[in-house]
Amino acid sequence: MPESMQDLDAMVNQVRKLEKYRHISPDLIRTLLQVELTKRSNPKEAIKAARSKLHQVGTAYLEAAPPFADWQNQLSTLPANLDDPAVRAYLLTRLPAHASTRERLSILPDFFNTCLAGVENIRSVLDVACGLTPLTLPWMPLQPGFTYTACDIFTDLIDFLQGFFNHFEINGHAIVADVLRDLPPVHADLTLLLKTIPCLEQMDKDAGRRLLHEIPSPNLLVSFPARSLGGHPKGMVKFYEQHFFDLIQGQPWQVTRFEFPGELVFRIQK
């Protein structure tokens, strides 16, 4: 075990020496290291285990070191109008940098309209472990003047998303957050948990159940991967459907199921 907080901070810095972990929230890394140090006494082994976990929950899905500063500069040249065809075309070129939005590209025109059909007056959104999903705002059926809170563990991603909100004059807040410990206290009309639960359960097996029960939104859109990152189904639809209903067992919520190529979706109305 580290003898002091300085020792732990040094381990955090050691984890972040690798480029793909450099922009991950130090608080999350510190938490993971503390957990790993309860399982093993060797700091080098704890660092290796923490990096492995961070890969499973984050870096495996985000293209290596996206040039967010360049993206921000490119955004600044575009009209401040999400409905402008040039803006939509540009956003479509950026969505493939994250596995979740890359896999959703072919169904994007229908995804949100289908899943949110009949849900009226969405004026606020909480996007948990958002990735690049905020860039799909032009395809979401939201009310004018909506608010959008996006949280993730990558500091450079969050800085870019705040710049995105600012450029398009969206009432949006991008927050670096470890949602297992510090979920933003937002009472949104809609919460998005898109392919989020399997990642969080890599760190905390009860994360999915806890979030589904504790998030105060009247509407939740929850999805699971229907294929592996390599594109193989591996019985994932059957597995995650059973898992989802186990997580909400005993709740009187209204649930609507949707299935798309690559994604299994459930809409919860509490």
In short:
The protein has 270 residues and is an alpha/beta fold. The chain has 11 helices and 7 strands. It has 2 domains: 5-59, Orthogonal Bundle (Helicase, Ruva Protein, domain 3), CATH 1.10.8; 68-269, Vaccinia Virus protein VP39 (Rossmann fold, 3-Layer(aba) Sandwich).
Task: Tell me what you see in this structure.
- With 270 residues, the chain is α/β, with parallel strands linked by helices.
- The protein folds into two domains: 5-59, Helicase, Ruva Protein, domain 3, CATH 1.10.8; 68-269, Rossmann fold (3-Layer(aba) Sandwich), CATH 3.40.50.
- Helix content is 40%, strand content 16%.
- The protein has eleven helices and seven strands.
- The protein has helices spanning 5-15, 26-37, 43-59, 68-75, 85-94, 99-104, 108-115, 155-167, 197-200, 207-214, 236-247, and strands at 124-128, 147-152, 171-176, 190-194, 219-225, 254-260, 263-269.
- Helix 8 links the parallel strand 2 (147-152) and strand 3 (171-176).
- Helix 2 packs across helix 3 and helix 4 packs parallel to helix 8.
- The chain is globular.
- The N and C termini lie far apart (44 Å).
List keywords for this structure.
alpha/beta, 270 residues, 11 helices, Helicase, Ruva Protein, domain 3, Rossmann fold, seven-stranded mixed sheet, 2 domains
